[in-house]
Amino acid sequence: MKRALVPGTFDPITNGHLDVIERTAGIFDEVVVGVAASAKKRPIFTLEERVALVQESTACLENVTAVGFDDLLVNFARQAGATVVVKGLRATTDFEYEFQMSAINFKLDGDVDTMFIMSSPDKMHLSSSIVRELMQFHGDISSMVPPCAERALKEKFSC
């Protein structure tokens, strides 16, 4: 049984994240969505809130679970029993960063492979930071995030 790990901060989860998670779920037997604590990024949602949003957004995917973590990615991958880390790519800038990270992860644990999935063209423009900024100015994000994330953002920004 092949288990993959899809890591991220998911602050909030977007339809782009969901696209990568759904496509990964179609390839692997089991998928663990690893929600990183990412204190350095200063997320607006707590780790528990982000895990809950990912769980609600992926509830229809029977082979997907969401778990929070605060450790090196390869350590968490080992702990989760994942042999592959799946990263979504939107543009060449994502690739340069993720390529470097995959090399570091391979150096730390050569038994954990990295696989890249290109974002669907209609979702390449999405990022959590763009969604947060739009929400700050009361922009329409309904096509960019799952309904639970939109509700949570509206509560966070009181609109």
UniProtKB/TrEMBL annotation:
* Residue ranges of domain Cytidyltransferase-like in the record: 5-133
- As recorded in UniProt, its EC number(s) are 2.7.7.3
Which prosthetic group or cofactor does it need? Mg(2+)
Kindly list the places in or outside the cell where this protein is found, as annotated in its UniProt entry.
Cytoplasm
Record-level GO BP terms: coenzyme A biosynthetic process
A Pfam family it matches: CTP_transf_like
Chain positions of site Transition state stabilizer: 17
Q: Which residues bind substrate?
A: 9, 41, 73, 87
Q: Which reaction equation describes what this protein catalyses?
A: (R)-4'-phosphopantetheine + ATP + H(+) = 3'-dephospho-CoA + diphosphate
One term under GO cellular component: cytoplasm
- From what superkingdom does this record's organism come? Bacteria
The pathway this protein participates in, as annotated, is: Cofactor biosynthesis; coenzyme A biosynthesis; CoA from (R)-pantothenate: step 4/5
Positions of ATP binding: 9-10, 17, 88-90, 98, 123-129
Q: Does Repeat show up as a keyword for this record?
A: no
Coiled coil region boundaries: none
Keywords carried by this UniProt record: ATP-binding, Coenzyme A biosynthesis, Cytoplasm, Magnesium, Nucleotide-binding, Nucleotidyltransferase, Transferase
Primary subcellular site in the record, as a coarse category: cytoplasm
Q: Name one GO molecular function term.
A: pantetheine-phosphate adenylyltransferase activity
> What function does this protein fulfil?
Reversibly transfers an adenylyl group from ATP to 4'-phosphopantetheine, yielding dephospho-CoA (dPCoA) and pyrophosphate.
Assigned protein family = Belongs to the bacterial CoaD family.
Subunit composition and interactions? Homohexamer.
Give the HAMAP family listed for this entry: PPAT_bact
Query: Per its record, how is this protein called by name?
Result: Phosphopantetheine adenylyltransferase
